[in-house]
UniProtKB/TrEMBL annotation:
Natural source organism: Handroanthus impetiginosus
Alphabetical UniProt keywords: NAD, Oxidoreductase
Swiss-Prot/TrEMBL catalytic activity: sn-glycerol 3-phosphate + NAD(+) = dihydroxyacetone phosphate + NADH + H(+)
Amino acids binding substrate: K152, R301, N302
Name of protein: Glycerol-3-phosphate dehydrogenase [NAD(+)]
Amino acid sequence: MPPSLEGNNNSNNTIAAAAAARGGGIEDKMTPVQSRVTVVGSGNWGSVAAKLIASNTLKLNAFHDEVSMWVFEEKLPSGEKLSEVINRTNENVKYLPGIKLGKNVVANPDLENAVKDANMLVFVTPHQFMEGICKRLVGKIRKDAEAISLIKGMEVKKEGPCMISSLITEHLGINCCVLMGANIANEIAVEKFSEATVGYRKNKEIADKWVQLFNTSYFMVSPVQDVEGVELCGTLKNVVAIAAGFVDGLDMGNNTKAAIMRIGLREMKAFSKLLFPSVKDSTFFESCGVAELITTCLGGRNRKCAEAFARNGGKRSFDELEAEMLQGQKLQGVSTAKEVYEVLSHRGWLELFPLFSTVHEICIGRLPPAAIVEYSEHTPKFSLVGGSARFF
Ligand SMILES: NC(=O)c1ccc[n+]([C@@H]2O[C@H](COP(=O)([O-])OP(=O)(O)OC[C@H]3O[C@@H](n4cnc5c(N)ncnc54)[C@H](O)[C@@H]3O)[C@@H](O)[C@H]2O)c1
Ligand SMILES: O=P(O)(O)OC[C@H](O)CO
């Protein structure tokens, strides 16, 4: 069992205990009910999210100090279990080495046990694992729980695309906000300033509570009433990041990369609005939109692996490059490109989204990396000018 911080709680719990011992009284009414937070996921961003949250739960009376963090258990080369090493060293030595998470972060390899007391659930795993996680959590969470997803990606089902926040809501019957932004985890881990966007559906009070939980002097969070817009920005930018990586691997230079980013942003906006007409134009100017696109095309993991893919002429697979270059961390862009392609082909929209469709065809080896900037009048897959002009 993970260690408990019950003996190391903030003053309100002491007040509550004293009031309970007295058998109730006026103090009880004054004692705030503290929210309990569990972070489901402990990769690179998951660990940084736990660190951010833990610094705030210590300071704010609205939250219980202890932050539970579910760890997908694995054995380290030393033979030790990752969760045990995190609890002993206060560091995620595999996914975020060299950074102390905060003593109030408690790693727990037992998923059901990690979530059972929480009324604020933060989901932050690679998107491909979420359906399985949701199925395991049915009937295991508090009925009053609220969720937020930091996950970039979508599932494609027979009925159509399903965003991860919807997957959480459908399986668990709880409201789910999202948090996306220009957030390369390693930079936030060392407390370099960045911004993020919380997307919410209706309840502004809940959005404000999430903002309170995440906001720090170096992590500035703003709420926006547009869950789908925020989540699609975070999801689709990974496809554009792959395209940007191809451009880097082909040594095409900054102008070409900027063109790819511009065209990518337009496809992101068009795709989002076709799927969800309620998506707001203004969302693309929040941190989750243009800022996130820029940072990911400059410094993200999708970009990095796509550059290596293009430098190798597409001869080494993304799976191989991911395993070699990321050591357990996961790419989201390649599978998202496939998922987006499925939606496009199913709806007859392939020709409308030349950048998105070309990225997928390069990833699966149907086209060479150079196709990202090639134009053929006979097969207008993608053109820096012609292709995108077709629908904008
Ligand atoms: N890393 C970043 O800079 C960053 C920033 C913003 C958002 N995100 C997003 O956050 C999400 C999580 O990414 P991350 O960076 O925290 O993770 P990661 O890619 O660093 O790590 C992979 C994680 O997956 C876990 N895992 C492996 N197999 C699993 C399985 N079968 N079931 C469940 N979990 C398994 C590993 O234990 C590890 O925690 C992604 O959607 C990503 O796009 C990442
Ligand atoms: O490293 P990436 O490519 O997964 O991108 C990281 C974040 O999503 C950037 O905000």
